[in-house]
């Protein structure tokens, strides 16, 4: 019996590793394709050679490094961040609706970032800082309002939805108070576009992804213990509230910095985790969800820029894909009676 269980675990680990590597390869391929396609089409070898400084062609270097690499890197970084954050929320709260953009975290980041864009004039540093502050304050408010001797997914989501609507209304009010030019800029930012990130936002996002994603992967064992319930997690030696708060805070920072760089890319965090679960099983790994998120954003940007008659912000495509999924998910949750 034990031998069979060990064999089953090895098979699952092998399957998880294989699928994750395939997802990583697809992500890299899309990353390269994003830098290949445009008004001037490049070969994969030109892109790779320029990106890794293996060749010296000033015209190709300008196209790749100055024009296309920032967009591709923003899509990659924001997708990785949102994929991990979404799955952490969904597993912690045991509910597929527990997505940062659905429960007000992205809304708080957007409200504060838009306020910084419209009223401070302090540039990228203010936008990133205010987005992070807004997301943190939103998460604290949701956590405190949902606390009743503990946190349940259903109550957390309901409180988050309420605050999300409040943040949306306040964002609309802030935009209405701005002059027309600034309001148009803010509305464009609110749709979400990976081509709008400045150097500071992009560097901040990439540093956060490089530092926080490995931390999240290390903490994934605690996440698995928390899924068993607070009592079982405590019995396994996990400090329940500290671990839960740490994982939530890590996810909030990732969402905030992705939002500061690319705007609120709707539904990416919501759908990346479930896709990873479909591919791997219920114990979907955070790396798999990260790569799924990156694939979604990179693909959405390719479609938005090159597959339609006119170029559109990336968030339009993610919204068009995510909205039907949300409708299906709501219908499924309602039929199954799952509340978290």
TrEMBL record:
One annotated GO molecular function: transmembrane transporter activity
GO biological process: siderophore-iron import into cell
UniProtKB keywords: Cell membrane, Membrane, Transmembrane, Transmembrane helix, Transport
GO cellular component: plasma membrane
Annotated localization: Cell membrane
Bilayer topology annotation: Multi-pass membrane protein
Family the entry assigns: Belongs to the binding-protein-dependent transport system permease family. FecCD subfamily.
Protein's name in the database: Iron ABC transporter permease
């Amino acid at each position: 019996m034990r031998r069979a269980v060990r064999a089953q675990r090895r098979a699952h680990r092998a399957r998880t590793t294989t699928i994750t590597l395939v997802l990583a390869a697809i992500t890299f391929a899309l990353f390269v394709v994003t830098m290949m396609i445009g008004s001037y089409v490049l070969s994969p070898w030109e892109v790779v050679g320029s990106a890794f400084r293996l060749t010296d062609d000033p015209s190709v270097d300008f196209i790749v490094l100055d024009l296309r690499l920032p967009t591709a890197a923003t899509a990659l970084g924001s997708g990785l961040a949102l994929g991990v954050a979404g799955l952490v929320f969904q597993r912690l709260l045991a509910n597929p609706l527990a997505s940062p953009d659905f429960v007000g975290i992205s809304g708080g980041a957007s409200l504060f970032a838009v306020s910084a864009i419209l009223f401070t004039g302090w540039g990228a540093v203010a936008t990133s800082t205010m987005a992070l502050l807004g997301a943190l304050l939103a998460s604290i408010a949701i956590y405190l309002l949902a606390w009743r001797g503990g946190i349940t997914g259903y109550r957390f989501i309901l409180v988050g939805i309420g605050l999300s609507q409040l943040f949306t209304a306040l964002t609309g009010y802030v935009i209405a108070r701005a002059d027309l030019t600034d309001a148009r800029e803010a509305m464009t930012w609110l749709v979400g576009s990976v081509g709008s990130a400045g150097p500071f936002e992009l560097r901040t996002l990439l540093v956060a992804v490089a530092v926080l994603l490995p931390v999240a992967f290390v903490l994934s064992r605690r996440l698995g213990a928390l899924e068993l319930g607070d009592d079982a997690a405590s019995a396994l030696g996990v400090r329940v509230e500290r671990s839960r708060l740490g994982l939530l805070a890590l996810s909030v920072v990732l969402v905030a910095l992705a939002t500061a760089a690319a705007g609120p890319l709707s539904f990416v965090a919501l759908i990346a985790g479930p896709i990873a679960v479909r591919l791997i099983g219920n114990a979907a790994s955070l790396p798999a969800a990260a790569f799924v998120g990156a694939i979604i954003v990179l693909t959405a940007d390719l479609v938005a820029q090159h597959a339609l008659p006119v170029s559109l912000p990336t968030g339009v495509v993610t919204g068009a894909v995510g909205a039907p999924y949300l409708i299906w998910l709501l219908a499924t949750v309602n039929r199954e009676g799952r509340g978290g």
